[in-house]
Amino acid sequence: MNQPVATPAIYNTKLESKTKTGTYLAGIGIGIKMSSQVNKCMDFTALLTSIYLLSFIPSIALSFFYYFLSVSLALSPAKKEVKELDRFPFVTIQIPVYNDAVIGKSIQACLEMDYPKDRYEIVVADDSTDPEVIAETDKYLNHPQVKIIRRTNRSGFKAGALNNAMKYSNGDIIVLFDSDFIPPRNFLKRAISHFRDPKVAVVQGRWRFFNLDENIVSVFASLSVLSYQYLVYPVKDMVGTPLLSGSSVVFRKDIMEKVGGWTPNMKAEDMELGLRIIANGYKIVFDPELAAHCQAPFSISSLVKQQMRWTYGGLEAFKTRAKEVFSSKHLSLFQKVFITFIVSLNFNYMLILFQLLAGLALGILNILPFGQMWWLIPVLGGGYFAGISYALSNEGNPKLAPKGIIATLLIGVIVSTANTYAIARFFAGKELPWYVTKKHKA
Predict the structure, then answer these.
(1) Which one, of 113, 122, 119, lies nearest residue 149 by Cα?
(2) What does the domain layout of the chain look like in residue ranges?
(3) φ, ψ for residue 251 (rounded to 5)?
(4) Of these four, 197, 251, 380, 416, which has the most CB atoms within 10 Å of its CB?
(5) What are the tens digits of pLDDT across the range 298-335?
(6) In the chain, which stretches have pLDDT less than 50?
C-alpha cells in the first residue's frame, strides 16, 4: 500500500517556494515604494534649494540698489533753495486726532509759526472719546486762531475726519500734521515757497523722531522711515512720483477739491490720494529740508500694527487706483513701471520670511550648512545697512548705526512675519482692522 507521504512534502515545497517568491517580490515592492518616497523627498529638497537660491536674486539686486543710492546721495547731497516770500496766502493747518493726549503740544507748536497770525488758522478734527484728550483740545475752544471740530461718529476714520474738516477750512493752502507732529517755526514759509511754481500742487515734507533711541523697537521703527525718506524719496522725486506720506504735507486746496478729496476707510489714504493727484497731471515735490518731529512706535504691538496697516494699505491703494494710473496720459511708461516697482517692495517681506524659513530647513537637513550661509548677511543686508548709516549720519547720530543693524536683524523678522500676514489677508479679500498707533503722553 502506497504511503501518501511524498505528496504533502512536494506540496509544502511548492508552497514554501511560492511564499519565498512572494516575500521577495513584496520586498522588492516595498523597496521600490521606499525608493520612490526617497526620490520624491530628494526632488522636493532639490526644488526647495533651487527656489531658495533663486530667491536671492531680487534681494541682492535690491541690496545693491541701496548701496548705490547711499553712495551716490552721500557724494552729491541736493538741497533745495528757499526764496523769501513776497506774499502770504491764507493757510489752514489741519490736525486730526483720536485719543492722542499729545495733541496740545502740536497745537501750541503750530500757533508759534513764523507766519503772520492773521494769515493762518488751525482746524483740529477731534474724533476722540478719551475725556483727557477732549479736555486738552477744549483749552483752545476760545482761541481766535483755533477751531475744534467734532463728529458724532468715526465714519471714514482719518480720511472721513479730514473731509469733514475741509468744510471748516478757509485756507487756499492746506497743511496736514498728525497729532504728535511738532513742526519748526519756519515750516509754513519754507513749504509755501514751493508754490511759486504754478505746476506744484503738493509739497511733501520729511519726518524726524524725538524718541529714535528710546529702545530697540523705536530704533527699528525710526530707521525704517528715515532710510526710506533719505534714499527712496529723492529718487521718487527725481522720477516725478513722490506720492504722499500722510503727515507734514501741504496742498493747494483747489487741487484737493478737483481730485475729490480723501477716500474714506482707506488704510493708506495718503498713498491713494497721491496716486490720484499725479495720475491727474499735478505735481508733487519732496523737500527733505522741510522736516517736522514726531514719535516712533516704541512697543512691538504698536510697531507691528502700524507696519501691517501701511503694507495692507499700500496694496489696497494701488489696486484702487491702478487703472487710473496706467491709463493716465500725464504719466510716462517709465513712471508707471517705477510706481509698480515701489509698490512691489512690499513683497520683500514675504521673500525675507521665505528665505529665513527655507534657510533654516536646509540648514537643519545639512543641505546648505549654516556656516556656509553667513556670507549672505552682508550681501543681502549690506545695502540696507549702508542706508541706515547714511540716514543716521544725516540725522547727526552716526554712532547709532550698530544698534540700528542689530534692531533690523532682530525686529525685522517679526515685522516680516506680520507684513506677510497682512499681504495674505489682502489677497484673501479679508479686511484689516484699523489700528491707531499709540503715543507717549509726555
Answers:
(1) 122
(2) 87-309
(3) -120, 155
(4) 251
(5) 999 999 999 999 999 999 999 999 999 999 999 999 99
(6) 1-15, 17-18, 24-25, 28, 30, 32-34
Question: Is 54:155 a contact under the CB 8 Å cutoff?
Answer: no
For cell 554712532, name the residue.
399
Give pLDDT tens digits for 142-162: 999 999 999 988 888 899 999
What are the φ and ψ backbone dihedral angles of 375, each rounded to 5 degrees?
A: -65, -20
Least Cα distance to 203 among 274, 267, 111 occurs for 274
Q: All 3 cell numbers of residue 317?
A: 491703494
Instruction: Write out the three cell numbers for 382.
Output: 549690506
- Residue 211 CA to residue 149 CA, distance in Å, equals 30
Instruction: Tell me the C-alpha distance between 204 and 207, whole Å.
Output: 10
Yes or no: say if 223 and 391 are a contact pair by the CB < 8 Å rule. yes
Give the pLDDT score at 37. 55
pLDDT of residue 80: 64
149 beta partners: 125
The length of the chain is 442
| Amino acid occupying residue 426 | F
Strand order in the sheet with 120-126: 146-150, 120-126, 91-97, 173-176, 249-252, 200-209, 283-294
The CATH fold of domain 87-309: Spore Coat Polysaccharide Biosynthesis Protein SpsA; Chain A (3.90.550)
Give the residue from 174, 204, 201 showing the smallest Cα distance to 277. 201
pLDDT of residue 155: 86
By C-alpha distance, which of 408, 189, 411, 210 is closest to 287? 189
Which one, of 291, 272, 282, 372, lies nearest residue 330 by Cα?
282
